[in-house]
Task: inverse folding
């Protein structure tokens, strides 16, 4: 048994927690590589009280001072990139080259974006809306915020949460997923070089710890990236004392492929967007809807792409050709395999469909064709390397099928007809619509959904505004 113990980070230092320990498992092997202490009620309260004290001075900092701190964090993260890449790979099983090429640069860029955004928040100009009185708007930090992040992108999701919150002048208590706290703690340690003690605090633990973070009376806003079930629980808890909530929840992204799309290129990009990070992405291209003339060729091309993908099971996480990691944990492995075991008789597993090997939590890249709109595989978020393909008679039916689920986070349209692309993108009820691509995100544009996919935006100036409050000040002349 390993002696490596991870502790919470509160008030600028590592602290012991009182709630026992959790095993941390390498998903590529199934072996325990560390333990994390679990924060109990007193530990969470200590973190919040520390953040509240820190807020009294952090709220007075200028945007330029907060920018300087975030830029310092970004540069330090860039300098220590190799350490973070190794830690993220160990904790998630991801190929090192993909973490280094895709996730670290994006995380650093997002820190730098919010560093700049801190200095350009705008409001209405002052004016006399009542004779003899002048009104103006103050945009202020909310205060202490509680945040909970998922296990699919541990480091990047931590930065999506804390960067806008800190840029706006708030202090933070953040709980990472119970299975992936490693890089979040490393980030808190790095941030302590640039932030006053107590501005950023991290508590580790399980679902019960998350409930303590969400249910504590002190934060004025709680933010979570997670499942619809978790989001509903957070909203219900927050309603008891009217906390604001910021919810980025699940997705079941429809991918509408029309007869005039180029099959080869579309299949390559859709497979990549469906299998990246083993499909553990709320925007994964998991639900393909194709019109008749292209459907069969698309299924064949997607299957060919899946068969060509190499996993870290076959090659190891250091191999540059390895693209597919394991799913994150045993529970998720069982969940994904359960979807495949329950497929209806009319569904056709074209390739994959089972566990890969007997070591770690690997699932074969899978294409399931012949599904219909009432099938579980079509309607529920699998969060694994599984793409379903269903046939739509025409454009109208494709849009209807796409909009028929309660998920409304992301979608894509594949066509060579510009008019159709604009028409369909307007009709799709999703927070993001990509045209002839799927998955890219940029710091300048908002990320967030409608309906059961949540409320509020990550990234962009809209994400920063979500961590502020508006105050009207009126002065008599």
Result:
């Amino acid at each position: 048994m390993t002696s490596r113990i991870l502790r919470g980070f509160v008030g600028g230092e590592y602290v012991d927690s009182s709630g026992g320990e959790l095993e941390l498992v390498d998903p590529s092997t199934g072996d325990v590589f560390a333990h994390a202490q679990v924060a109990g009620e007193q530990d969470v309260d200590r973190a919040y009280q520390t953040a509240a004290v820190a807020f009294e001075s952090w709220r007075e900092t200028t945007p330029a001072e907060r920018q300087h701190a975030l830029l310092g964090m970004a540069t330090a993260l860039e300098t220590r990139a190799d350490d973070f890449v190794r830690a993220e790979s160990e904790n998630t099983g991801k190929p090192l080259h993909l973490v280094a090429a895709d996730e670290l640069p994006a995380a650093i860029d997002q820190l730098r974006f919010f560093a700049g955004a801190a200095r350009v928040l705008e409001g209405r100009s002052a004016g006399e809306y009542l004779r003899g009185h002048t009104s103006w708007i103050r945009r202020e930090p909310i205060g202490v915020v509680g945040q909970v992040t998922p296990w699919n992108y541990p480091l990047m999701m931590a930065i999506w949460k804390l960067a806008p919150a800190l840029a706006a002048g708030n202090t933070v208590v953040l709980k990472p997923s119970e299975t992936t706290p490693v890089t979040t703690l490393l980030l808190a340690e790095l941030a302590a070089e640039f932030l006053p003690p107590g501005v950023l605090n991290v508590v580790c633990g399980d679902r019960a710890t998350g409930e303590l973070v969400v249910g504590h009376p002190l934060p004025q806003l709680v933010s979570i990236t997670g499942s619809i079930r978790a989001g509903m629980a957070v909203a219900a808890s927050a309603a008891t004392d009217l906390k604001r909530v910021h919810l980025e929840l699940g997705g079941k992204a429809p991918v509408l492929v029309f007869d005039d799309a180029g099959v080869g290129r579309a299949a390559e990009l859709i497979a990549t967007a469906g299998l990246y990070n083993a499909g553990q992405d709320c925007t994964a291209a998991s639900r393909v809807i194709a019109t008749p003339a292209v459907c069969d060729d698309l299924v064949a091309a997607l299957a060919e792409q899946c068969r060509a993908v190499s996993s870290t099971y076959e090659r190891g996480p250091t191999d540059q050709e390895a693209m597919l990691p394991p799913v994150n944990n045993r529970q998720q492995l069982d969940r994904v395999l359960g979807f495949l075991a329950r497929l209806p008789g009319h569904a056709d597993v074209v390739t994959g469909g089972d566990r890969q090997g007997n070591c770690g939590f690997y699932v074969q890249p899978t294409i399931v064709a012949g599904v219909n709109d009432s099938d579980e595989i079509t309607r529920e978020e699998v969060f694994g390397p599984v793409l379903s393909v269903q046939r739509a008679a025409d454009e109208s039916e494709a849009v209807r099928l796409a909009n028929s689920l309660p998920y409304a986070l992301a979608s894509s349209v594949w066509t060579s007809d510009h008019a159709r692309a604009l028409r369909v993108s307007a009709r799709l009820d999703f927070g993001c619509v990509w045209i002839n691509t799927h998955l890219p995100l940029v710091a300048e544009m908002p990320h967030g959904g409608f309906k059961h996919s949540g409320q509020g935006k990550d990234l962009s100036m809209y994400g920063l505004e979500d961590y502020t409050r508006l105050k009207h000040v009126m002065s008599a002349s």
Observations:
- The first helix runs from residue 41 to 58.
